[in-house]
Amino acid sequence: MRFAPDTYETLSRARADLRMGVPVVLIGAEGAALVAPAETLGAARLASMQALGPVDLVLTGRRAETLKARAYDGDVARVVLPDGAALDWVRDLADPADDLNAPMKGPFATRRDGSAALHRLAVSLCKSARLLPAALVVPVAAGFAAENGLVALRADAVAPALTALPALDHVVSAKVPLRAAQNARLHIFRPEDGSDEHYAIEVGRPDRDKPVLARLHSACFTGDLLGSLKCDCGPQLNAALAQMGAEGAGVLLYLNQEGRGIGLANKMRAYSLQDQGFDTVEANHRLGFEDDERDFRLGAQILSKMGFGAVRLLTNNPAKVAMMEHCGITVAERVPLQVGKTPQNAAYLATKAKKSGHLL
Predict the structure, then answer these.
(1) Angle, CA 122 vertex, CA 121 and CA 123 arms, to 5°
(2) What is the DSSP letter of 207?
(3) What's the CA gap between 64 and 154, in Å, rounded?
(4) Do 94 and 144 belong to one domain?
(5) Which residues participate in the annotated binding site for Zn(2+)?
(6) Catalytic residue numbers?
(7) Residue list, annotated binding site for GTP
(8) DSSP of 150-177, one letter per residue?
(9) Structural domains counted in the chain
(10) Residues forming the annotated binding site?
(11) Both 122 and 179 in a single domain?
(12) Which residues are noted in the entry as Zn(2+)-binding (predicted)?
């Protein structure tokens, strides 16, 4: 009999705890560390962590660059918390919202000795929970998690799990007549790691032996549902479905990777930074993220599970074409999808072309 959670199940629990501000414990070859997210941790728990010993605030190299903090470990910086540092100080470093109002936050002491493996993993955990990529880390004894009822994660198991492609199970499909295509079916795919579900809208009965007209569309609450003029997502979604309806066949993959994979809350933080004059890439970097955190391998896996081996891909993004080919999906044709330009998103589209290589 087996009842204990496996690595993916424990990881899912850890994400939920982090979103509530509950710390978790990482255990590695170098010891154990208590990890808490800078975004959701409360003042009482911060004080308790400080009582355990020297606490590091771990930021990504991108965020450290903005703060002029030395990232001796390259992709992360271990900022030493000053004695008695308050929660507001921590959050000011993690969240760039007030960077322009209070630009001189340093100088900072950053750690350069010892392993940063658990610190790097702590930031990855926060990212996977769709939180700001900033974590507080303090060494603890190996039995700390059990003594305090906290989730414990073994680094050697969790690190590969965070980068692995989760297996997707086809849950159900049903007919959903659409304005653009009345002969459509909606398929639900659920990842085995407990993360967000993804969807496939199949128009007609596409021939599996021929390249199917396809689009990988990342969820955009503001553009797809609210009709936001700051992006071209809604028009692209509607134009793709309309073209599939006109041709009588196609498949649109709706991937729940809001805000280029950083989540809606962080996307709104990026929008706020754009209001201050930063472009979309600069905003992501100030938040501590890369230009694009999405995983297009999910789309390739769904296509394979649906029996498609070749596509005519509706996209302006060469990265999607490259990833499909890398994952064994033949891209017989790239079909441009240039719609939805507005005065409000002209600068955004120009940035996508200049910095992200989109063919616009």
Answers:
(1) 90
(2) -
(3) 27
(4) yes
(5) 220, 231, 233
(6) 292, 294
(7) 215-219, 236, 258-260, 280, 315, 320
(8) --EEEHHHHHHHHHSPPPEEEEEEEE--
(9) 2
(10) 215-220, 231, 233, 236, 258-260, 280, 315, 320
(11) no
(12) 220, 231, 233
